[in-house]
Amino acid sequence: MVTVTAMHTQEGDIPTAQELVDRARAMIPTLKSRARKCIADRNVPDETIAELKEAGFFRILQPKRFGGYEMHPNVFFDVQKLIAEGCMSTGWMFGVVGCHPYELALFEDKAQQEVWGEDSDMIVSSTYQPVGKVEPTEGGFYLSGHWGFSTGSTHCGWVLLGALVPPSEEGGAPDMRTFLLPRSDYEILEDEWHVFGLQGTGSHGIKVDRAFVPEYRTHRALDGFMCNNPGQEVNDSPLYSLPWAQVFVRSVSTAAFGGTRAAINAAMKIMEGRISTNTGKASKDDPALHAAIAAAHAQSKEMELTLRTTFKELLDTAERGEEITLEQRALYAYQSSTVVRRLAKLVDAMVELLGGRAIYTSSEIIQPWLDINAARAHVANDPNNRTKDVVGTMLGQPPVFTFM
Asked: pTM for the whole thing?
């Protein structure tokens, strides 16, 4: 059990970025010790959720008026990487659930008050697949459907669900929205999450049977794209003027950095003591293995630097009151989409040089290898969805994929 000093002894008592990073680093041994239970249970342990809350991690991107910290996104991602180094399933869950306070801050104030007004520690899950059936009605919508992949859902009291609002006029375009529902309005389908990697994320299914969702509890994707959200009237920090998609896509690629660091550490540990029973050669003298470890270490650091630079440029631009260009946004989303696949190849290169020692499920390199390969399946981690917009915006053309 990691003990963390309570942060909210008085209003406005906010830890420093370094304190949060230090707390995350201190949790790594505990997260490692719980990783097998997390995987076996297909869910992050309750005690881990409690400790993440106690450490203040879910408050990093939350508005200050609800006790949040409104910190630089780089602080959030630094914490996520360290959590994922201890357990990538936990790091993935934290990235997804922990970035939702940012999107919730973009909703109308009434929705924010409903979620955080009585419990500022409330956390929210999501699944943005636009598979729901929407029926417009007076004051809002009726929503029905079955969604998959709601990470961390059993720990959350609300959910964000994607769906298309049908056009009001014949031939019009549908309106992509996120619908916010309380726990009483949906069912969590806990027996759906059986996967080969990221097993512990608890990414269960969600079922909704014609629940009424008021207009104010919806967020239009177009508002997020245009950076003109109703919540910015009450949350007027430059932080909340960033494109929402830029925050989200990084939340599902950044855990792979922590998984890769865990894999590098595991490879080094195996290398130090492994002597091939067939050749008699020591792995610590294998130049090919050295090259694979060096590549994973150096290239992951390069990608992390790109992440850090991206959000420095985004927030610096917002603080100057300048517009973030579509060319920038397309490039940043593309760079994020390449991370997991590139890291998967780097980790795979180490695994194939570690012989039979690496293939046991007891090997510390196998779980991060599985997790990173599973993370490739997320739509935001497929660079093929982004290439057209990178080239198109370079030519001055409007984007095709507007979630960026």
From this structure: 0.94
